[in-house]
């Protein structure tokens, strides 16, 4: 198949290289600056396996780049849109990037027979987009094909998904979509477009809810001297519940959960349907950083002039994405309290915010710090030389926002190095130097 794919961000680029790997001829379109970088193999997106797959598919003549939507769309069997759909301050989803793409198609009069929306869009959007294309004389069908990949394992998730969902009206659209995914072995659900749009939002809302549930229970564990790790192990081994997304910590971040929850709440408000579970999910998450920060202040008393070492900037491991990362919320707390931040992340070397020094190594970042806080679950943080880290510090205080350190490491830094260790969802008294 000839596929034109608009948007080469986290979703679009992964989709483009994966469809090319499946044997389709893919032309990926983005803004001049982005395409210029990709032509020189400079990826703004950091994902395991992506760079090699990009090189392979380009070498095999299956993947091309362009900057002109209409030119790239000419002669294609389908056009897929994977541009951003951020939330506006009023909670509505901003569809301007999608409308801009449609604008190019309408102006040129060029449009493939099928337009597939891959971006996450509010319920009813595909119906509306199809109406506007038809009004412009472009008798194309709009289908919805949500993406469920996780950043950090995006290529794997795309090629080995749990399920593929097609929201479409006609048999012809379903046939084209099935052709596009030929070679991927996963159950396919075909449904109407509105249900497909809600499958995506409901899935993300449910995952966010699991995280907030674990975080809520972790507060109870701290109060009663229980251990959240044991609690979620017991809860998650029930097959009806499952262990994924049941980890307590500093809360979820990233470009999707917060935005999609807001969008879903707005969709509910528009028709007078309240969604209290989702409101609670967002509220619990919003409070995670303040709660962690309060622990820090309980030891420091006066934070002004203190230095905090932060391990982890990206919102999760194996990605360089800092959108809505818990790190950014922590940073603004620090700025308000006059705290100096020295941070380290294995792949993020720049932060689009003032008041942070990004260091080249964790040992540099921790030098003369009055506390260290683990914000991202990068596995390499667990195997740092922790006694050495502690020796570099002015005050040996460790806040483990992801419960990442092993019991052996904790015992060593407390007993040998005299550190104070503060985890999430476990009694702090268990972790004070004897
Ligand atoms: N990131 C994820 O993990 C994820 C997972 C599933 C679904 N989604 C959804 O997929 C969509 C894309 O997300 P993302 O994280 O890849 O976004 P992104 O911001 O990383 O990428 C969007 C890309 O679209 C390009 N773009 C915008 N307008 C354009 C135009 N008119 N012409 C050409 N290119 C244009 C931008 O330059 C950018 O490169 C969103 O709706 C998001 O909610 C994201």
**In percent, how helical is the residue content?**
40-55%
CATH topology of the largest domain: Rossmann fold
| Unreliable runs | none
Q: What's the pLDDT, averaged over the residues?
A: 96
The unique ligands bound to this protein are: nicotinamide-adenine-dinucleotide
CATH superfamily of the largest domain: NAD(P)-binding Rossmann-like Domain
Cα(first) to Cα(last) distance is: 67 Å
Spatial strand order of the main sheet:
3-2-1-4-5-6
Number of beta-strand segments: 14
Given the C-alpha coordinates, what overall shape results?
A: globular
Given the structure, what is the number of helices? 18
Radius of gyration: 24 Å
Main beta sheet: 6 strands, parallel
Report on the structure:
It is built from 18 helices and 14 strands. With 434 residues, it is α/β, with parallel strands linked by helices. It has three domains: 2-191, NAD(P)-binding Rossmann-like Domain (Rossmann fold); 200-285, N-(1-d-carboxylethyl)-l-norvaline Dehydrogenase, domain 2 (Orthogonal Bundle), CATH 1.10.1040; 287-431, NAD(P)-binding Rossmann-like Domain (Rossmann fold). The strands form three sheets. It has a six-stranded parallel sheet, sandwiched between helices. Strands 11-10-9-12-13-14 form a six-stranded parallel sheet, with helices on both faces. Helix 1 (10-21) links the parallel strand 1 (2-6) and strand 2 (25-29). Helix 1 crosses helix 3 (50-59) and helix 9 crosses helix 11 (257-270). The mean pLDDT is 96. Nicotinamide-adenine-dinucleotide (NAD) binds at residues 6-12, 29-31, 34, 82-85, 97, 100-101, 119-120, 147, 149, 151, 255-256.
